[in-house]
Amino acid sequence: MGWEEGMRRAAELLSSSSYAVALTGAGVSTESGIPDFRSPGGLWSKYDPSEFATLSSFLKDPSRFYRAASEFLSVFTAEPNEGHRALAQLEEMGILKAVITQNIDGLHQAAGSREVVELHGNLRECKCLSCGRISPIEVLVTKLVQEGEIPPLCDACGGILKPNVIFFGEQLPREALERAFELAGRCDLLLVAGSSLAVSPANFLPPMAVEKGAHLLIVNEEITPMDAFASVVVRGKTGRVLPELVRRVRALKKN
Ligand code: NAD
Fold it and tell me: Which end of the chain is more exposed for a tag (fewer CB within 10 A), N or C?
């Protein structure tokens, strides 16, 4: 299917869907200046995930994590892009019921999406690994940046503070996971945008949706393992493709 044919079919499927859900990954935020993991030049080309983003490596040497974490500071100043805004518009139009995201950057909410399920936690908060207290991320940033406290420690118990994001080797938040599976089982269209679909259990959601009879629509720059099962695959940047889809869906809805 060529690009034009793919876009036409994708817009038709979206406009006739009655319960569409999106699943997004780091790719929707690269155009906001936040590097993804697996693209060329992504973070995995600089850091070995087994040394950097596992819970055991964090616990072994939190200081190393915090020294490398400067790479992630762009997350705090990033702004949503046209792709995030397009998904918020699809929700506003009553087509998209929720966005399930693997991202921790909060940009879907900043763009106006209301129903966002964060599978991998978020960077708005930090959590004490000893007493479990959750505080705003500013508490951690102040200790780290202004006071040079590495690793930053909990005011209540002296335990190590960690951003409230899920590292490899950690359990995903149960409530978010349950909600994501419920949405994937219920939707009649799953729109995957900007994800390599290489990370579990997020990548269990597309096969589940397909098995339950939903259309799978994939918008990604590179191939994914689920392309063969998709009703439509559109290759391209989410910041360009998603707004164009919204424009076409609006036109179809008018007729
Ligand atoms: P990934 O890095 O594995 O895959 C990103 C995919 O997006 C790639 O296939 C790439 O080709 C594609 N892509 C990149 N830019 C794109 C664009 N502008 N338009 C369309 N496609 C684009 O990311 P993933 O699947 O989300 O899984 C990796 C993990 O990365 C997740 O667990 C997530 O928590 C974490 N992560 C999050 C952020 C963030 O919050 N912004 C940033 C980096 C990593």
Answer: C
